[in-house]
Amino acid sequence: QVQLIESGGGLVQAGGSLRLSCAASGGTFSTSTIGWFRQAPGKEREFVGAIRVSLGTTLYGDSVKGRFTISRDNAKSTVFLQMNSLKPEDTAVYYCALGRYRGYWYEVRDGTAFDSWGQGTQVTVSS
User: Which of these, 82, 47, 55, 54, lies nearest to 67 by C-alpha position?
Assistant: First the structure.
């Protein structure tokens, strides 16, 4: 059974940085795609970004492109989300998810490529 544990959330001032981690266990990490999503109160879930672990290929949502970076440590089965130049509108619960890239990036963006989800970690950006 796949287990995903996010960590690294917290409170930061606007313009600051945070690095989230997503540690995976129980699955085939090396052939997976790991996605990051976020959800703010009263809003729909939003795609943040994703990485195809085997190739290191990344995809980002428009609102975070150029500010956020996804990387992975295969030896530790962990994916990182480096968030720079944070804005108050980045405040949300951030979730990581594990799935498989089946040739369609839209499935990654809309979340249907993922079948295992973490519990989430809160990120709060103060103005």
Answer: 82
SS3 54: coil
Per-residue CA distances from 90 to 72, 80, 100, 102, 106 (Å): 22, 17, 26, 29, 22
pLDDT digits (tens, 9 = 90+) for 77-100: 999 999 999 999 999 999 999 999
Strand pairing report for 10-13 and 121-126? parallel
Please state the φ and ψ torsions of residue 29, each to the nearest 5 degrees: -60, -45
Helix (H, G, I), strand (E, B) or coil at 31: helix
**What is d(CA 108, CA 127) in angstroms, rounded to the nearest whole number?**
31
Report in angstroms the alpha-carbon separations of 93 from 7, 20, 32, 73: 11, 11, 22, 23
pLDDT tens digits, 39-81: 999 999 999 999 999 999 999 999 999 999 999 999 999 999 9
Would you say 60 and 48 are in contact if contact means Cβ atoms under 8 Å apart? yes
Query: In sequence order, which ranges of 1-127 are alpha helices (DSSP H)?
Result: 105-110
